[in-house]
Design a protein that fits this description.
Layout: H1 24-47, H2 50-55, H3 60-67
């Protein structure tokens, strides 16, 4: 018995038409909100106890390095 394709999805990154993209100001607000969440997450991470950090496999040095990154630097390191 031969399997047949029932459907498909075409995904093209970066190919949105200008009409379908959100306005510039909305994209800017979303980016600012992302940076704010990222800064809050880093502050929260820095506030965790050493025992909690050990439980999740991080050291205080790891946390300090993450905390001292610029707020706009949201690319994973690794």
């Amino acid at each position: 018995m031969k399997k047949q394709q029932k459907g498909y999805a075409l995904v093209m990154r970066g190919q949105l038409s200008p009409a379908s993209r959100p306005p510039y100001w909305r994209r800017l607000l979303a980016l600012l909100a992302r940076w704010q969440r990222l800064a809050a997450q880093r502050r929260h991470l820095a506030s965790l106890s050493d025992a909690t950090l050990k439980d999740i496999g991080l050291t205080r040095v790891d946390v300090e390095q993450e905390f001292n990154r610029p707020f706009w630097d949201d690319q994973p390191r690794g």
